[in-house]
TrEMBL record:
GO terms for molecular function: DNA (cytosine-5-)-methyltransferase activity; DNA binding. SUPFAM superfamilies: S-adenosyl-L-methionine-dependent methyltransferases. It comes from Paraburkholderia aspalathi. The active site is at C80. GO terms for biological process: DNA restriction-modification system; methylation; negative regulation of gene expression via chromosomal CpG island methylation. This is Cytosine-specific methyltransferase. Gene3D superfamilies: DNA Methylase, subunit A, domain 2, Vaccinia Virus protein VP39. The keyword Methyltransferase applies. Keywords: Methyltransferase, Restriction system, S-adenosyl-L-methionine, Transferase.
């Protein structure tokens, strides 16, 4: 096996790096401006150089370039903040709001690795900038670039999460930019709301053609990893105590794994499981959750449960209407056990459990993102505001780190599609050197 080296820019907690490591790559460095995210990265990638700071700062850029010159593959998810170029004809790379994206392209230009992967949200694709980005990354013919939209749930992740990928390989080296081919589960399986009975209910519906039936069978089989449900992902953690301040529990206090996915997530873990704190919820929220069926949301609440305050406890801002405001609606969403989760965001109240009236722990978020249990989320031990830190405190930071990450199983599929091509290219280079 050829040792292939990866550098991860805008790495966050390290979802891309974890997937590439699982596929056999050596992670030699990761960088990010958020000190809490790089604390997590350093804990989980002790073999890598961790660079904390703004890539636009000359001393940070110099460190990044030094390690990136050793990389065979450069990966990252540079933020692209400006979509106005669609209207005013300014190219993305020239817009000052996209300076971080420009820095990624510059590192690529200065280091010229054999391959790269850039991931970002599909909103960029919807704004019509796919070709601009592909052209920027091609570096005037240095790379062959293939853009594609993929959904993580089609690659064994128990969460639908669409991402726009740009995979590039050096031109003239005998490599091809790979096209990922997932299960197709998200195109053939849906969660449908039925209202014929007294209370709404949600049911998984599978389209009637061969590939759909195959993924439908996988979804109902706890030993099949082709498609994974929420229950298969977190069912062994259902009894986590609410409001517990201790963030670790021994596995001996948890249910035994019931699915192939749960067993896979536990591989390589210690005797204790980290990131298991479950936030407290107020009495009003508990009442509403008990009125929402699995898979449901605020639309399923009966009229009396839409009152702003149910038990007399005052919480949050009162809009004066006596009813829940629109901003509360999307906080009341329950998973369905028989299908994957919707796209997680960075907030702990963006999803609630399917069978108990509670929020999810960071570990359950991580399971739905396909992070293995050995991957521990932490924060920089320094207190208060520090450069690059986001507001909200340590607990929010951990949810944020997980919610912003690339699912490792998706990243592993990307990495596996690249490994053989890049390894073969390096072997050919080595043989030519020996022959010369």
């Amino acid at each position: 096996m050829t040792a292939l080296k990866v550098v991860d820019l805008f790495a966050g907690a390290g979802g891309l790096s974890e997937g590439f490591r699982q596929a056999g790559f050596d992670i030699i460095a990761g960088s990010d401006n958020d000190p809490d995210a790089t604390a997590t990265y350093g804990k989980n990638f002790p073999e890598a150089t961790v660079i904390t700071g703004d890539i636009r700062a000359p001393h940070v850029k110099a460190r990044i370039l030094a390690v990136a010159r050793k990389a065979d593959v450069l990966v990252g998810g540079p933020p692209c903040q400006a979509f106005s170029q669609v209207r005013n004809h300014t190219r993305m790379i020239d817009d000052p709001r996209n300076s971080l994206y420009r820095e990624f392209v510059d590192v690529l230009r200065q280091t010229l690795p054999l391959a790269f992967v850039v991931e970002n949200v599909t909103g960029m694709d919807q704004m019509g900038v796919r070709e601009q980005i592909a052209t920027d990354l091609a570096l005037e013919g240095e790379y062959v670039v293939h853009p594609q939209v993929v959904d993580a749930a089609d690659f064994g992740v128990p969460q639908t999460r669409k991402r726009l990928l740009f995979i590039g390989v050096r031109a003239g080296r005998g490599m091809e930019a790979p096209v990922l081919d997932g299960s197709g589960a998200t195109d053939s399986i849906t969660l449908t709301r039925f209202t014929g009975s007294r209370k709404p209910r949600y049911q998984v519906v599978v389209q009637q053609h061969i590939r759909s039936l195959r993924t439908g069978e996988a979804l109902s089989n706890f030993d099949d990893l082709l498609a994974v449900t929420a229950a298969e992902a977190i069912g062994d953690l259902v009894n986590l105590p609410v409001g517990n301040r201790v963030d670790v529990l021994p596995y001996s206090q948890l249910s035994k794994p019931r699915s192939a996915y749960q067993r896979a997530m536990r591989e390589g873990a210690d005797k204790v499981l980290a990131n298991v704190q479950v936030p407290r919820i107020n009495a009003d929220t508990e009442l509403r959750l008990n009125g929402i069926p699995p898979g449901g949301n605020y639309r399923d609440l009966e009229e009396e449960l839409l009152e702003r305050y149910l038990t007399g406890q005052r919480w949050g801002q009162d809009n004066g209407s006596g009813k829940l405001s629109r901003k509360h609606f999307y906080a009341y969403r329950r998973l369905h056990p028989d299908i994957w989760a919707w796209t997680l965001n960075t907030k702990g109240d963006s999803v609630y459990h399917y069978s108990v009236a509670r929020a999810l722990s960071v570990r359950e978020f991580a399971r739905l993102q396909s992070f293995p249990d050995r991957f521990v989320f932490t924060t920089d031990p320094r207190r208060g505001p520090i450069e690059g830190r986001h507001d909200g405190g340590p607990a929010h930071s951990r949810y944020r780190q997980v919610g912003n990450a690339v699912p490792p199983l998706l990243a592993r599929s990307v990495a596996a599609s690249l490994y053989a091509q890049v390894a073969t290219c390096l072997q050919k280079q080595s043989r030519r050197k020996r022959a010369g």
